[in-house]
Specification:
This protein is of the alpha/beta class and 382 residues long. It contains twelve helices and twelve strands. Helices cover 38% and strands 12% of the residues. Helix 5 links the parallel strand 2 and strand 3.
């Protein structure tokens, strides 16, 4: 059992007690304020509040950024996942293979289609879908694979696409945490049939509220998703099927278009901070994150592991260092999915990660001094 040095917590030098937030969206706003506020004023002056030119401009830019032919901007990452699955033909009674180590929205989208989430465990190194377990879960009802690029690291898309090709099953990428990540040199999102992104404020590319997008190289699927997001209207007041109000606000389109220009630099800073963490935390009794082969991680989260995670988190909180938990209760053990009949022990790697995971502060505006305060605290606590 790993132990804590209690006296170190009690006698830490004042310099080690610098308050460190988990993220600092106020600092990010200050960096883009002079660009964003005029754009917001233009949207308001034009009363272009729903979809419109600014959203279309963002769609064009984000498609190019991800290497996709088409982008469909929507109101959340959850909506993006839902539309991508509908466009892939997922219907009531179908099955979609995914992972329980994710935010619950991944499974919500499957359930919204009336389909069943079928879980496979994650790889013990990358915490993304373990391709070796996928084929055993395929049935005649399997309509899609939905791997999650967790914490900013791509899943093993090469292996998953090969399995999908053999069985005629498309891969839908949950890239909601992986803006700018790459697998085998290609941007995530444009590798599978569709890729889904969230622009929740804390994401690598975050809106000033909710937002999401689906990217795809299939023009027919893009056209259908654009129709479905707007009440399934091919023309105004004509509704060809059950549709949804999943439209992106014009303000969010304008803001995201501006912030997209900064994303490469923000991701680069995240990578630099991740390297510093890995170097400075080496040798401590912490499980440090690893990067899989042929993958470019964008470090949406820097997640370490410790068998006494809750006590470690409390000790950091005592030093005014904020941390996060992503995610302490796997989806298969959530009450909302009790009807699937899963029990503790069904997905051992996922459950181990959930018990031990701790997300350390990491955001593009983080200073070296703030990160050094986190490292100092961890060295004195552990």
């Amino acid at each position: 059992m790993l132990k804590f040095a209690e006296t170190a917590v009690e006698t830490a030098a004042p310099a080690a007690r610098m308050a460190v937030p988990f993220m600092d969206l106020k600092a990010q706003f200050r960096a883009v304020r002079d660009e964003v506020l005029p754009a917001m004023e233009e949207v308001a002056a034009d009363a272009a509040f729903i979809l419109g030119q600014r959203v279309a401009e963002f769609e064009e830019a984000f498609a190019a950024y991800t290497g996709a032919d088409h982008c469909v901007a929507v109101n959340s990452g959850t909506s993006a996942l839902h539309l991508a699955l509908l466009a892939a033909g997922v219907r009531p009674g179908d099955e979609v293979i995914t992972v329980p180590m994710t935010f619950v929205a991944t499974s919500w989208a499957i359930s919204y289609c009336g389909a069943k989430p079928v879980f496979v465990d994650v790889d013990p190194v990358t915490y993304t879908m373990d391709p070796d377990q996928v084929e055993a879960k395929i049935t005649p009802r399997t309509r899609a694979f939905l791997p999650v690029h967790l914490y900013g690291q791509p899943a093993d898309l090469g292996s998953l696409l090969e399995i999908g090709l053999r069985h005629g099953i498309p891969v839908i990428e949950d890239a909601c945490q992986a803006h700018g990540a790459k697998c085998r040199g290609r941007p995530v999102g444009s590798i599978g049939q569709s890729g889904c992104f969230s622009f929740y404020p804390g994401k690598n590319l975050g809106a000033f509220g909710e937002g999401g997008a689906v990217v795809t190289n299939d023009p027919a699927k893009a056209a259908r998703m654009k129709m479905l997001r707007d009440h399934a209207q091919p023309t105004r007041y004509v509704h060809t099927e059950i549709g949804f109000n999943y439209r992106m606000d014009g303000l969010q389109g304008a803001i995201l278009r501006i912030k997209l220009n900064h994303l490469p630099d923000w991701d680069a800073r995240r990578r630099d901070l991740a390297v510093r963490y890995r170097d400075r935390l080496a040798g401590l009794p912490l499980g440090l994150p690893a990067v899989g082969p042929s993958r470019t991680h964008v470090w949406h989260l820097f997640v370490v592991r410790h068998p006494d995670r809750d006590r470690l988190r409390a000790a950091l909180a005592d030093r005014n260092i904020q941390t996060g938990l992503h995610y302490p209760t796997p989806v298969h053990l959530q009450l909302a999915y009790a009807h699937l009949g899963h029990n503790s022990g069904d997905f051992r790697v996922t459950e181990s990660v959930a018990r031990e995971c701790l997300s350390l502060p990491l955001f593009p505006e983080m200073t070296d001094e703030q990160q050094d305060a986190v490292v100092t605290a961890l060295r004195e606590i552990c």
